[in-house]
Design goal:
With 135 residues, the chain is α+β, with helices and mostly antiparallel strands. The chain is 22% helix and 36% strand. An eight-stranded mixed beta sheet has the order 2-3-4-1-5-8-7-6.
């Protein structure tokens, strides 16, 4: 697998306002974008994208419902790794015995992702992100 860079990191938050206050007020991070309760920045040095992802939105992205399934551990954060070929990376992960939440698919914002939970409970994606590619 050819991981090219960390595309995104996002704590998965249960209280969007408390988390936004902590990251904005306590740490001094600015967020220039917002989509519902999801806020993000592309201006934090060392990260392509840093966001605060509400659990209900993570559940919807993974399972099509705002409730995280009770039988699956609730993740604390999401991390995305950029790869050249998401389908091949997903197949490689499956071949190594990892269970995907879902295989390669195109998200509404144009990113191609496949997701799984890591052993420590992070929501991990291998992805291809046109927005972070050179034109």
């Amino acid at each position: 697998m050819d991981v090219q860079f960390v595309t995104s990191i996002a704590p998965i938050v249960r209280d969007a306002e408390a988390s936004r206050s902590f990251y904005s007020d306590a740490l001094g991070l600015g967020f220039e974008g917002q989509d519902g309760d999801y806020v993000f920045t592309h201006e934090l040095e060392g990260a392509k994208h840093f966001g605060l992802w509400p659990l209900s939105e993570a559940a919807n992205a993974c399972f099509g419902t705002t409730e995280w399934p009770a039988e699956i551990p609730i993740p604390q954060a999401s991390i995305e790794f950029e790869v050249a070929d998401v389908a091949a990376a997903a197949a490689e992960l499956t071949a190594k015995g990892h269970r995907l939440i879902y295989g390669a698919r195109t998200e509404p914002w144009g990113q191609i992702t496949a997701r799984l939970l890591s052993p420590e409970g992070l929501l991990v994606a291998v992805c291809y992100s046109p927005a972070f590619r050179d034109p």
